[in-house]
Amino acid sequence: MVDDQTTDPYYSVQIGPKKDPFCFQAIPENSSAGALCYQRQTGSQIYDMDKARALRFDVNLATGAGNVSSSVVAKGPYLWIVNTLPLGVKQCICTEPREGGDHTSAEVFPLQYNWTNRLSFVGLEKVGIEYMQPPTKMVLEHWNYGPHHIWSVPGTGSIIRMWQPFNGLQVFPNGTLPSPVDESKLTALPPPECTSAYRFVVKIKCNASGYPSNYPPSAPDFQAAAAPEADVGMWRTKTKVPRHAYRGETFEQMSATLNGWIIDALGPDSVKSCDDWNVEELQKLQASLYMLRYPAYNDVYSATSDAREIDATIEDMRETWAQLNAAASKTGFHSMHRDGHCHEAVMWFTHHLQEDAKKVLNKQGVVIPLLSAQRHVCPENPTEEQAAICHAYDYKVSCSDCHANALPSKEKKANFLARQARRVRRFLRL
Q1: pLDDT at 404 over 60
Q2: What is the DSSP letter of 3?
Q3: CB-CB contact of 170 with 47 (8 Å)
Q4: 76, 194, 259, 410: which has the highest count of C-beta atoms within 10 A?
Q5: Residues 250 and 360 placed together within one structural domain of the fold
Q6: Is residue 229 over pLDDT 60?
Q7: How many domains does the chain contain in total?
Q8: β-strand partners of 94
Q9: Residues 195, 232: one domain?
């Protein structure tokens, strides 16, 4: 194995335990237990065991919410992952990989320069190489050590393909022969985005210096400048009844009032009428907002049975959305379906994101929908598909429970109880 090389292009499918809905924290391990992530990556790799003694990947990841660019750097016992999310927001994950994913086991370091010395020769094989265009078969030497399998070019040792069960596939179409290395990409560590100097970065398990800390993997932290007790978002989270300035006598007036506040906060160029969105755009926006949510807020909602709670995983929601999209196409209830998503997206943006996150989204030019002023009414005897759209819509526009001064009807009370019982998801899964 060479000491220095830049491999471009580089392709991989990394397999690791699922620790978050979008597999951002998936690190390959030697076990297939539990839910797994199969993370497709395309990009380049830098390997330097001469000076920096580090390994770096710059890749693009395909996610359900859009493309994510990711820089992964391993040096010593540390691993940093810097993601640029679809909305332009950066995220840093600081970690210390351990053998088998057990934090009490031995540390895991980047592959050493002499790791190939342990390989045993299996034989010559004619192998179809993934990702190569046109499709290509090559006669390669097959080597292995334990679960590690390597296919290299006879005579040169240039590695073309690597595979490890429950860990991943790596393909180097141009091989791994010596090549120049940009050392600057391996020496600026920890990555500056992972330190407290970068305020507008979602940091997971990072301390102020950018090294791993004891943050739980499910709790992203925007590391806002304000102390938690001065956090405007937390104050809003714990406030159950909106002030008068944020209410309206009717559903229409409520929507107009809240739209006014949204436009004042974000500016007219950062909002768009609900009528100008389609459902798929709104769902993609919501998936991105879900990535950036601050779990501490949702913990408060959950503990107090607050209707603002997000009580489903993104996978469950995407499954539900697909079912509702089909129901809307069959029934023609497109406007109701879309308007419900506008209300829910605004609620998520307002009540699940920290103020720093909102500011950076606004700085990135992210557009937020306005609330639709129309209050849709369901038919008296709906079909199964119509009922699904109606129940989901009532769930999404629940902001009117607090922001409108109008007294709720018997139907509205029934819909609220249904929401509390998670009726929407149960209904869809019958």
Answers
A1: no
A2: S
A3: no
A4: 194
A5: yes
A6: no
A7: 2
A8: 80
A9: no
Q: Exposure string (b/e) for 387-414, b if CB count within 10 Å is 16 or more?
A: bbbbbbbbbbbbbbebbbeeeeeeeeee
| Dihedral sign, Cα of residue 255, residue 305, residue 91, residue 111 | negative
Residue type, 12: S
CA dist., res. 85 & res. 392, Å (int): 28
Kindly state whether residue 25 falls inside one of the protein's structural domains: yes
User: For position 116, what pLDDT does the model report?
Assistant: 86
**Do 178 and 237 share a structural domain?**
no
User: 222 lies in a domain?
Assistant: no
Encode 328-366: b = buried (16+ Cβ within 10 Å), e = exposed: beebebeebbbbbbbbbbbbbbbbbbbbbbbbbbbeeeb
**Nearest-angstrom CA–CA distance, 314 and 286:** 10
Q: How far apart are CA 351 and CA 234, in angstroms?
A: 9
Q: Are residue 117 and residue 168 in the same domain, yes or no?
A: yes
Q: Give yes or no: residues 261 and 149 share one domain.
A: no
Assess whether 284 and 167 both reside in one domain: no
- Concatenated DSSP letters of 248-317: BSSHHHHHHHHHHHHHHHH-GGGEE-GGG--HHHHHHHHHHHHHH--HHHHHHHHHTT-TT---S-HHHH
Q: Are residues 196 and 266 in the same domain?
A: no
Helix (H, G, I), strand (E, B) or coil at 124: strand
Q: Does 223 reside within a domain? A: no
CB-based contacts of 159, cutoff 8 Å, min separation 6: 1, 150, 151, 152, 172, 175, 176
Identify any residues that bridge with 401 across adjacent strands, giving them in sequence order. Answer: none
Cα radius of gyration rounded to whole Å, the chain: 25
Q: Domain range spanning residue 346?
A: 228-428
pLDDT tens, residue by residue, 75-107: 999 999 998 887 777 888 899 988 766 777 888
Q: CATH code at 80?
A: 2.50.20
CA nearest neighbour of 66 among 286, 352, 271: 286
In a domain, 211, yes or no: no
Each residue's pLDDT tens digit, 266-321: 999 999 999 999 999 999 899 888 878 888 888 888 888 888 899 888 878 888 99
The answer to pTM > 0.85 is no
Which of 41-55, 59-73, 86-100, 197-211: highest mean pLDDT? 41-55
Per-residue confidence (pLDDT) for residue 145, from 0 to 100: 92
Last residue of a domain, one of 204, 219, 243: 204
